[in-house]
Specification:
With 792 residues, the protein is α+β, with helices and mostly antiparallel strands. It has 19 helices and 34 strands. Bound molecules: pterin cytosine dinucleotide and CU(I)-S-MO(IV)(=O)OH cluster.
Length: 792
């Protein structure tokens, strides 16, 4: 595989400016809210002010009388269409509009369609809802109390807030390992509720064409094909009369995977009014009612020998899923991929159990660059390893080096049954330590500690689990997780690639052109990438779980290879030789041994569309497709080191340095990969230090604006120092692994480990995220200043 580092005109892999930036940098992107169809109406959602209340009555008469209002929709009206409740992605139902009760603050209660956005919002004020307020439960632990109010009394026979019990690993073997271990460390920790908070909120424009009865839904979705099929299945709409378009998307981060009530309401609004209807959330609606992430209460235990060989890992989780179990993950995985929690270590036995509970909070759980809960899994194991290092008084880098899986152990089957494809872990950690100057940093820390200054060094090593399917294991409501790609070379040698996945900022228009370029030799600027439109792209499950490169990227590579295979036959017909007499040189076929006689891809493309006679059974034109069902996930990994300073007077944490070594196999475009990593690292600093969606006892969401939900800016982030190792995936046709969520998954524990390391002189063993000054200050009050606890 060649890599071209030429910015101007590369063929194949290498640094190349993003094609899509030509419009983004000029402010010419085309987002859902930019769409203004003739005659378009505007919808607005009335939301519940209460976390838990019975709806006694809804009076819409005044709103209906508003001169600019065209329709007012309630749950009662949706019931007549059989759309008040829709199936969730995880064996539950979700209310589109509340009928019996509201179950979280911000839940959808009614929908107004009006001539303009302002009138729609004004008319919301005219709707009279008579609520009987009920006691809410926002604490996952209290939700399981016997006398806790039952949130889901819509489910026949439901008498508690319990959703599911699920476990993985060998409990007996783990118990035995723990019983015989020299040292066992226990630690409770919370991964708090956070929100992906994409720059663009969610929205849709729906239009039912009254002539041909075709419904087009422009929406902020990461998975247009899956949405179309689910609309067809749930609403009974004919799928060939449905078109889902996701135009430019201003960040998804998992927030735009599921189907939100607003999308359905825009569709119903258009069907009722026979006009296009736009619905766009505002920021508070996005933060209050769309998919959140985490909310995992974890009880971890780690067992080791006295000299620091990790033997076993155990975790018991209480998973707060909010009012509806609506997490967007492969349907057979109620806890997502959490059971990959043994991480990057070679240990004997492991067991995890997860209990899901309902609370009066917005539903969700899997969003925010999470790889289906690998985020929580990595946090758990990386904090546990650091806790063990603390107890053993061992350097956390040394402890990791001692326990990391070794290259010769791959392919490796984890104690909970995951088959890691490839890895060279110690090399990545060593590289990160070299970039950081780890040993020097420890010396500096010791000197600072002697002066009472608080400096911390935190390490995290993660293994990511990305690229879902294979479809025999993974599906979304029965739709197998495979993806399609079509490559068509035009007569003049330019090409179009049609993808089932959808970019929300990841740069697919560039990297997928580079994949096809790498295989065919056609320059990437001559390859157009089409995505995000079900009428113009092959079926597939969409972009999340960093699956585009592992799955759709493989489909693109294979389709492109099929094009090259066909090009050989066409070239042989043109050159009047046997196909075997030709030799491939990226972008052209030559007669073996004579480079002066050959045909370029452009010549071959013209030939394929021309008059040359092709062998019996070979059709004209130059195109191919592939539906790729991955044989396994890919397992990218990385070693992260964070250096922080904590102000002893104010307890404020400053991230001084952050070193990230990522291994995602070969990099299609190193610049884009670095961008993905930079963004994820900022996410990690945000979650570790400032982001949290908290609730008061009445169930009021305390993070419903960017004044309250803090996200990091460049001021909180250092200049990232990145490095790379390259361990190809043995089963991907180009060796590629995904990377889109790696840094978000891997970085929070590095920051937290650094802060706890800085606080070691205070005897602090753990503090939950976000490590705000208040939180750090509290932790520091636990014990007087001591230097003997410091890891040397
Ligand atoms: N890439 C590469 N070489 C590799 C692997 C990836 O050049 N070896 C490139 C890819 O071609 C792609 C990008 O890196 O352009 C990310 O690829 P991949 O890891 O396959 O992830 P996806 O494209 O499937 O993106 C999804 C992932 C997820 S799940 C979240 S959440 C997230 C993330 O991407 N959301 C994002 N990164 C985001 N970046 C932006 N700007 N916006 C989001 O919403
Ligand atoms: Cu979990 S967030 Mo991404 O998989 O869309």
């Amino acid at each position: 595989m060649t890599t071209t580092e030429n910015q101007a005109n590369p063929i194949g892999f290498g640094r190349m400016l993003r094609k899509e930036d030509a419009r983004f940098l000029r402010g010419k992107g085309n987002y859902v809210d930019d769409l203004n169809l003739p005659g378009m109406l505007h919808g607005a959602v009335l939301r519940s002010p209460y976390a838990h209340a019975r709806i006694k009555s809804i009076d819409i008469s005044a709103a209906q009388a508003h001169p600019k209002v065209k329709a007012v929709i309630t749950g009662e009206i949706l019931e007549t269409l059989n759309l008040a409740w829709i199936p969730s992605l995880s064996h539950d139902v979700v209310a589109v509009l509340a009928t019996d009760k509201v179950r979280f603050q911000g839940q959808e209660v009614a929908f107004v369609v009006a001539e303009d956005r302002y009138s729609a919002r004004d008319a919301l004020e005219l709707i009279e809802v008579d609520y009987e307020v009920l006691p809410p439960v926002v604490d996952a632990k209290k939700a399981l109390d016997k006398d806790a109010p039952v949130i889901r009394d819509d489910i026949a026979g439901k008498v508690d807030n319990f959703i599911f019990d699920w476990e993985s690993g060998d409990k007996a073997a783990t118990d035995e390992v723990f019983a015989n271990a020299a040292i066992v460390v226990n630690q409770d920790m919370l991964y708090p509720r956070v929100h992906p908070a994409p720059m663009e909120t969610c929205g849709a424009v729906a239009y039912m064409d009254p002539i041909d009865q075709k419904l087009t839904i422009y929406s902020t979705t990461q998975a247009p094909h899956a949405h179309r099929t689910l609309y067809a299945l749930v609403a009974g709409l004919p799928e060939h009369k449905l078109r889902v378009v996701s135009p430019d998307i201003g960040g998804g981060f998992g927030n735009k995977v599921g189907i939100y009530p607003g999308y359905v309401l825009a569709i119903v609004g258009s069907i009722l009014t026979k006009r296009p209807v736009k619905w766009m959330e505002d920021r508070s609606e996005n933060l209050m009612s769309t998919s959140f992430a985490r909310d995992y209460h974890m009880k971890g235990s780690i067992a080791a020998s006295a000299d620091g060989k990790i033997l076993g890992l155990r975790v018991d989780v209480l998973a707060d899923h909010g009012a509806f179990n609506n997490t967007a993950q492969p349907t057979k995985f109620p806890a997502g991929f959490f059971h990959v929690f043994t991480g990057s270590y070679d240990l004997m036995a492991a067991h995890c159990s997860v209990r899901g509970v309902y609370t009066n909070k917005a539903p969700g759980g899997v969003a925010y660059a999470c790889s289906f809960r690998v985020t929580e899994a990595v946090y758990l194991v990386e904090r546990m390893v650091d806790r063990l290092a603390q107890e053993l008084k061992m350097d956390p880098a040394e402890l990791r080096m001692k326990n990391l899986l070794r290259p010769e152990q791959f392919p490796y089957t984890s104690p909970t049954g995951w088959e890691y494809d490839s890895g060279e872990y110690p090399r990545a950690l060593r590289l990160a330590m070299d970039i950081a100057g780890y040993e020097e940093l420890r010396k500096e820390q010791a000197q600072k500690r002697a002066k009472g200054e608080l400096m911390g060094i935190g390490i995290s090593f993660f293994t990511e689990t990305v690229g879902a399917g294979p479809k025999r294991h993974m599906d979304i409501l029965g739709l197998g997780m495979a993806d399609g790609c079509e490559v068509r070379v035009h007569p003049t040698g330019k090409a179009v690639v049609r993808l089932s996945v959808q970019s929300q900022g990841q740069g697919h228009e560039t990297t997928f052109a580079q994949i096809v370029s790498e295989v065919t030799g056609i320059p990437p600027e001559d390859i157009d990438v089409v995505h995000g439109d079900t009428d113009n792209t092959p079926f597939g499950l969409g972009t999340y779980g960093s699956r585009s490169t592992p799955v759709s990227g493989a489909a693109a590579a294979i389709a492109a290879r099929r094009v090259v295979d066909k090009a050989r036959i066409v070239a042989s017909a043109m050159l009047e030789c046997a196909p075997e007499d030709l030799e491939w040189e990226k972008g052209r076929f030559n007669i073996k041994g004579d480079k002066s006689v050959g045909k370029t891809m452009a010549e071959i493309a013209l030939g394929a569309h021309g008059t040359v006679e092709l062998p019996e059974g070979v059709e004209g034109h130059l195109n191919a497709e592939c539906v790729y069902d991955p044989p396994n996930l890919t397992y990218p990994f990385g070693a992260y080191i964070c250096v922080v300073d904590v102000d002893p007077a104010t307890a404020k944490v400053s991230v001084r340095r952050f070193i990230a070594v990522d291994d995602c196999g070969p990099r299609i475009n190193p610049m884009i990969v670095e961008g993905q990593v930079h963004g994820g690292l900022a996410d990690g600093v945000g979650m570790a230090l400032m982001e949290v969606i908290a609730f008061d006892e009445d169930g009021n969401n305390l993070g419903a604006s960017f004044m309250d939900y803090l996200i990091p800016t460049s001021l909180e982030c250092p200049s990232w120092e990145t490095g790379a190792t390259v361990t190809p995936s043995p089963h991907h046709p180009l060796g590629l692994k995904g990377v889109g969520e790696s840094a978000t998954v891997g970085s929070p524990p590095a920051v937290v480990n650094a802060v706890i390391d800085a606080l070691a002189p205070y005897g602090v063993k753990h503090a939950d995220m976000p490590l705000t000054p208040a939180q750090v200050w509290q932790a520091m009050q636990g014990a007087p200043y001591r230097t003997d606890l410091a890891i040397q």
